[in-house]
Design a protein that fits this description.
single chain; mainly beta; four-stranded antiparallel beta sheet
């Protein structure tokens, strides 16, 4: 199972980016997908998550009013719309896919917010 992120890059404070992640590879059955991020010198932290069966979406408190997570119809892709971005959003963002027996991770994609 492979996860491929796209859509990262540099943006100014207050700007927007839309991250995408697609799952491919051996037959798989995801129960949900999500995003985490890691800034230099910091622990990896939860950003947002979506569960397919319930449609439930969970967010980190500091991004709840600015980020929106959504999933593709085939349940093999996830998106993260990031608005009103702040310098503290600068990090490597990792996509994850939750499956019954494991969670698969993407390679990560850099997001940089600057003045």
């Amino acid at each position: 199972v492979l996860l491929a992120e796209s859509g990262g890059g540099s943006v100014q404070i207050g700007g927007s980016l839309n991250l995408s992640c697609a799952v491919s590879g051996d037959p798989f059955d995801t129960t949900g997908m999500g995003w985490v991020r890691q800034s230099p010198g910091k622990e990896r932290e939860f950003v947002a998550d979506i569960t397919w069966s319930s449609g439930r979406k969970d967010y980190r408190v500091t991004v709840r009013d600015r980020f929106t997570i959504s999933g593709g119809n085939a349940k093999n892709s996830v998106f993260l719309q990031m608005n009103n971005m702040k310098p503290e959003d600068t990090a490597v963002y990792y996509c994850c896919a939750h499956m019954p027996t494991l969670t698969a991770w993407g390679q990560g994609i850099q997001v940089t917010v600057s003045p």
